[in-house]
Design goal:
Bound molecules: nicotinamide-adenine-dinucleotide
Helix content: 40-55%
Radius of gyration: 21 Å
CATH class of the largest domain: Alpha Beta
Structural class: alpha/beta
CATH topology of the largest domain: Rossmann fold
Distance between the termini: 64 Å
Number of helices: 11
Number of domains: 2
CATH superfamily of the largest domain: NAD(P)-binding Rossmann-like Domain
Strand order of the largest sheet: 1-11-8-7-5-6
Strand content: 15-25%
CATH architecture of the largest domain: 3-Layer(aba) Sandwich
Largest sheet: 6 strands, parallel
Length: 308
């Protein structure tokens, strides 16, 4: 009897560990800043990130200004090249080629989405893989798949870093990734299955055509939810002690916030957190790690540390 009360008591005290992406990202920014200060004092060239932004999409503008701000914070140089929606594919490809050949720029990102008349894949493939700090170029994706040094796209790289810094055990665990996008679900599933730490998981990928999703997810030791459906994962779908990484960001109207909207993850935090051992919040979990991973990739590009 006493034992039962003891465990219930402990469960409510210990509960879960909140994976604080905001604090982790701030710590990594400080580490990068220190390296950049050292580079500056040693009269080395500091990392330089260039971003191409086409059009005036609100979300894209926000992302690019967030990346600019992050660059300033760590002492990087940053250049934003803006174009109107009317730019032709040829003009854009010419600019990418010019940046590829510009030795003063270490990393280049082209903010997506691009206008319909521009072939996104063609633009991605025109970026020099050694400057592809978003890790979207097929060369980097391919290198990552076969375990060669590669620029790993920012969100999966950020998730790996959270797992590493929170010393979450992954070997032999069953990881269920919900979502199979090229930028999150697919790379995440490959990275967690690789022979490394974090990795060595048995990975199941679920997507919109998966049958019995609930039964599969209930067997997971680690869940990466990246489907973009607010509060999709609920407490009844997970087992006790699960590690939950919530990638989703859905913006919904709210009368409780000044801005009139609120961000929701793919996880119903209230019902899932009490059953979890580790869980990321939204906001403040995976999101802040994404930009910091881009900075880290840019630093690696400047040092030619991934490949020459
Ligand atoms: P996407 O929209 O390209 O793809 C969604 C995936 O979810 C698809 O593979 C689809 O098959 C799967 N899916 C959809 N409905 C499903 C269902 N009912 N059951 C199972 N699978 C289902 O995804 P994305 O670009 O990877 O983005 C996913 C979410 O992550 C979005 O909310 C996005 O905003 C967010 N995101 C966040 C960050 C960050 O930094 N935190 C970065 C990238 C994406």
């Amino acid at each position: 009897m006493f034992e039962k009360f003891f465990y219930v008591f402990i469960k409510y005290i210990v509960m879960y560990t909140l994976i604080d992406g905001k604090a982790t990202a701030a710590a990594i920014r400080r580490e990068i800043r220190e390296e950049v200060d050292y580079m500056r004092h040693s009269h080395e060239k500091v990392p330089h990130l260039a971003a191409i932004l086409v059009g005036h999409d609100g979300a894209s503008e926000t992302y690019v200004s967030g990346k600019e701000k992050a660059c300033r914070e760590v002492g990087f140089e940053s250049t934003v090249i803006r174009y109107e929606n009317t730019i032709t594919e040829e003009e854009l490809l010419e600019k990418v080629d010019q940046i590829n050949r510009d030795a003063s720029i270490d990393g280049l990102i082209v903010q997506l989405p691009l206008p319909e008349h521009i072939d996104e894949q063609k633009v991605i493939e025109s970026i020099d893989p050694k400057k592809d700090v978003d890790g979207f170029h097929p060369v980097n994706v391919g290198r990552m798949v076969i375990g060669l040094p590669a620029y790993i796209s920012a969100t999966p790289a950020g998730i790996l870093e959270l797992i590493r810094r929170y010393q979450i055990k992954t070997e032999g665990k069953h990881c269920v990734v919900i979502g199979r996008s090229n930028i999150v679900g697919k790379p995440m599933s490959i990275l967690l299955a690789r022979k490394d730490y974090p990795g060595n998981c048995t990975v199941t990928v679920c997507h919109s055509r998966t049958r019995n999703l609930k039964e599969i997810v209930r067997q997971a030791d680690i869940i990466v939810a990246a489907l973009g459906k607010a509060k999709f994962l609920t407490g009844d779908m997970v087992q006790e002690g699960v590690v939950v990484i919530d990638v989703g960001i859905t913006r919904l109207p709210s009368d409780k916030t000044k801005s009139g909207w609120k961000l929701w993850g793919d996880v119903d935090f209230e019902t899932v957190a009490p059953k979890s051992s580790f869980i990321t919040p939204v906001p403040g979990g995976v999101g802040p790690m994404t930009i910091v991973s881009l900075l880290r990739n840019t630093l690696l590009a400047a040092k030619q540390a991934i490949y020459k």
